[in-house]
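SAMPLE LOG
Freezer: B-3
Tube label: C17
Construct: single chain, 133 aa
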Amino acid sequence: MTEVLLPEGWPRPVGYANGVAARGRLIFVAGQVGWNTASVFADGLLPQVRQALENVVAVLRAGGAEPRHLVRLTWYVVDRETYRVSRSEIGRVYREVIGSNYPAMTLVQVASLLEDRALVEIEATAVVPEDGA
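STRUCTURE (predicted):
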């Protein structure tokens, strides 16, 4: 069971939640970058976002979870401006891979990521309800 938390009087966020309360089995997904199973990076931020999200989903499924179980995402990007001008396309890719679940999210610009070609890294937390729903 999850509950989106929205403090009284706050504007409704778009594309994320301010907070989520959940109960169940916790799944923690390490930061996923935009490379495939052969460690080959996609070119550009948008393809890397898609691949990183697909990688998050693959780890979730390995743990018996689905994208609907996500309660938190932390995004690390190396170029905030590229992210900002790509937000609508990133939103489209997000909905195609994750669906309409908008967990608590944080976005951080970093100087670089461990993998030289990485433009984005996404880590996740999911909670599978005790009843498995």
